[in-house]
UniProtKB/TrEMBL annotation:
One of its GO terms (cellular component) is extracellular region. CDD domains: Peptidase_C1A_CathepsinB (cd02620). Keywords: Disulfide bond, Glycoprotein, Secreted, Signal. SMART domains: Pept_C1. GO terms for biological process: proteolysis. One of its GO terms (molecular function) is cysteine-type peptidase activity. The gene is tinagl1. Coiled coil: none annotated. Residues 1-25 form the signal peptide. Residues 56-104 form the SMB domain. This is Tubulointerstitial nephritis antigen-like 1. It comes from Sparus aurata.
């Protein structure tokens, strides 16, 4: 008992020292009593309500007596009258045996044939349920990211796509999904009004193929979908992925860097929110003016504790003339020495028609993500009314950005056809169609055709030559 309290005291003292400094800590400690520092036994309900403790001890103690204790499970409980003041450390039979009254914790709730007591909790999907004093479970009423009803409704309906229950999303609320899994802010009005590139297409010589998939046209040069985790930085993921693809295609595979989203998240902080959302036009500006290194050099660190943490910027670059830049710091990954900076040309915006011309590489596109998108498994996505039978908190949406990698057309049995885009998301490869999804094309579904942007890598013949040697030298 003494050792136990001593440990707690030392621990508390250490924490206080860290927080308020030495002198203040002593003052605070002297005002606290040992008992107030004891672990609260009953916060989660009495775990052994039928055991006899004070009775087995042979009675109760008047007033305060810090030695009037009995071993209780893996700790101790008290049988002095003082315990009643804090309630939290009385033995389970204290009220019945010492006071002759009902304990303040009397509710019992049932779940799967097991008994639970007042204050005990369990988590049902994204909602915490607490055993109330009346013996009934009281559950939070949040809409969850994975709602079995919505998954079922989508799979029973004829929507053209199917839904799945993803374990990585299970237990999150819809609001958390929108807060932590998206992360693109709408560009400003001036950017949104940026002129779209129009090409004069000769309808004869430039007929659109019915199907185009950049991953098939440029094997090995289109980067696989990544997982942003609980970091709302799709702005950085979509931009880095498109720029990576472009450099690989443009250099004809001499350079196939996977550019670092973390470099953007931690260093492109001007008017950007890191893991709390950002803008893709800002990300392209950074890629053009400052440039970023590869993922191997500056690896992604998804936030563990607070989802909004960004991390200190660990990469800087300086100008070496003609707009080109060079890193002035080593890679944050100390096992990697390739800190080459990759830059892009100014971004251009294109009308959704142009992106359908032949031989088009990948683009970044903004879209609105609705509640049912999180459960997408395969097929051609369209926002459904599957949540419309539920209260309004089950419907919500947020802005996201993704990488468009191709398009196609699916023939239906009745002779009609459905046009779609192929796009890469940043929710890992076990989501959707290997990390990709298809979405209705030509009707601005979820506003995916509103803002499509791309930029070329800034690569010279010299770069390609250098990189060629770089790689060769490493093999010699
Ligand atoms: C002790 O517990 C009883 C029963 O819960 C309660 O009625 C009484 O007010 C408590 N006394 C103090 C001093 O908290
Ligand atoms: C969904 O997945 C979670 C965790 O993987 C599981 O606990 C839950 O029972 C599943 N729900 C349905 C309806 O399959
Ligand atoms: C796209 O092309 C279609 C058909 O060629 C045309 O009707 C439509 O106006 C075009 N949209 C834009 C934004 O240029």
């Amino acid at each position: 008992y003494w050792m136990f309290n001593m440990k707690l005291l030392l621990l508390t003292a250490a924490v206080l020292l860290l927080v308020v400094g030495e002198g203040a800590a002593e003052r605070v400690l002297s005002r606290r009593t040992k008992r107030e520092l004891a672990s609260p036994l009953h916060v989660g309900g009495i775990r052994d309500p039928f055991g006899s403790y004070c009775q087995r001890r042979g009675g109760c103690c008047p007033g305060r007596d810090d030695l009037c204790t009995v071993p209780y499970l893996d700790t101790i409980c008290y049988c002095d009258l003082f315990c009643n003041r804090t309630v939290s450390d009385c033995c389970p039979d204290f009220w019945g045996h010492c006071l002759g009254v009902q304990p303040p914790f009397i509710g019992t709730c049932e779940r799967n044939g097991n008994k639970f007591f007042t204050g005990q909790t369990y988590k049902e999907n994204c909602n915490l349920c607490t055993c109330g004093t009346t013996g009934r479970w009281e559950c939070e009423q949040n809409a969850c990211l994975m709602e079995p009803d919505i998954i079922q409704a989508v799979n029973r309906g004829n929507y053209g796509w199917r839904a799945a229950n993803y374990s990585q999303f299970y237990g999150m609320s819809l609001d958390e999904g929108i807060r932590f899994r998206l992360g693109t802010q709408r560009p400003s009005r001036t950017i949104m009004n940026m002129n779209e590139i129009q090409m004069n297409m000769d309808p004869q010589s430039d007929r659109l193929p019915l199907y185009f998939n950049s991953a098939e046209k440029w094997p090995g040069k289109i980067h696989e979908p990544l997982d942003q985790g609980n970091c709302a930085a799709s702005w950085a993921f979509s931009t880095a992925a498109v720029a990576s693809d472009r450099i690989s295609i443009q250099s004809m595979g001499h350079m196939t860097p996977q550019l670092s989203p973390q470099n953007l998240i931690s260093c492109d902080t001007r008017n950007q929110g890191g893991c709390a959302g950002g803008r893709i036009d800002g990300a392209w500006w950074y890629l053009r003016r400052r440039g970023v290194v590869t993922e191997e050099c500056y690896p992604y660190r998804p936030p563990q504790q607070t989802p909004a943490e960004v991390g200190r910027c660990m990469m800087q670059s300086r100008s070496i003339g003609r707009g080109k830049r060079q890193a002035t710091q080593r890679c944050p990954n100390t096992h990697n020495y390739q800190n080459d900076i990759y830059q892009s040309t100014p971004p251009y915006r294109l009308s959704s028609n142009v992106s359908q011309t032949k031989n088009t590489p990948t683009h970044a596109s903004i879209m609105e993500v609705h509640e049912d998108f999180f459960v997408y498994k395969n097929g051609i996505y369209k926002h459904t009314d599957a949540s419309f039978t539920k209260p309004p908190q089950y419907r919500n949406h947020g802005t996201h950005s993704v990488r468009i990698t191709g398009w196609g057309e699916e023939r239906n049995f009745d002779g009609t056809s459905k046009k779609y885009w192929i796009a890469a998301n940043s929710w890992g490869k076990n989501w959707g169609e290997n990390g990709y999804f298809r979405i209705a094309r030509g009707e601005n579904e979820c506003e995916i055709e509103t803002f499509v942007i791309g930029a070329w890598g800034r690569i010279t013949m010299e770069d390609m030559h250098n990189h060629h040697h770089h790689h060769r030298r490493r093999h010699i």
